[in-house]
Design a protein that fits this description.
Keywords: Acyltransferase, Transferase. By secondary structure, the chain is α/β, with parallel strands linked by helices. The chain contains six helices and seven strands; from the N terminus they run αββαβαβαβαββα. A seven-stranded mixed sheet has the order 1-7-6-2-5-3-4, with helices on both faces.
Length: 182
């Protein structure tokens, strides 16, 4: 069924949707590259048309008046970079019948040489798969690259994810390193 957000994304804005979102009740969804606030806009349109229960992880600094109301409506929850936060997210999964946690593993818009590892630890602790989503501005594509069903070895997962993003073009390519240590 086509939704208004899907119509806007594909017909008005000219984007293509690639890959099927898997039939899963729970997952950690990573979206990269993240070099622009537009990524969140396109990602929101994409996720809205899927009809899944999701929450975005956003910087806790955004949750101050008046922006906090926008981010709450947007479906965001604030990130706290502590080890206890991993347990908090695992608890969200345990207390939900359906939930997809969406995040950008880069952690911010500026160029990084190493991704944060929270996405891996959240998936592992909650025993849920990692869905590798992407947004490619050169091809005007947004979608899913792969599902990593059993993320038990971080070094294998990181290598596989780096290979999946090797041909993806960010809005600001100078801020996305293909030699990234994910």
């Amino acid at each position: 069924m086509r939704t208004l957000s899907g119509y806007i994304l594909t017909n008005i804005l000219g984007w293509k949707i690639k890959g099927e979102f898997p039939v899963l009740k729970k997952s950690v969804v990573i979206f990269a590259p993240h070099t622009s606030y537009w990524d969140g806009f396109y990602g929101k349109l994409y996720l809205m048309q899927l009809g899944i229960n999701y929450k975005f992880l956003s910087k806790k600094e955004f949750f101050k008046f008046p922006l906090k109301y926008f981010f709450q409506i947007f479906g965001s929850i604030p990130v706290d970079n502590t080890k206890e936060y991993i347990d908090y997210v695992a608890g969200l999964f345990n207390n939900s019948t359906e939930l997809h946690i969406v995040l950008s593993p880069e952690g911010h818009l500026a160029k990084v040489t190493r991704w944060k590892k929270g996405y891996y630890y959240m998936a592992n602790r909650a025993n849920v798969p990692i869905i590798v989503g992407y947004i490619d501005y050169r091809k005007k594509e947004i979608g899913i690259k792969k599902v990593i069903c059993n993320p038990t070895d971080i070094s294998i997962v990181r290598k596989e994810i780096a290979e999946l993003y090797s041909d993806v073009c960010a809005k600001y390519p100078e801020n996305f390193s293909h030699e990234l240590k994910v």
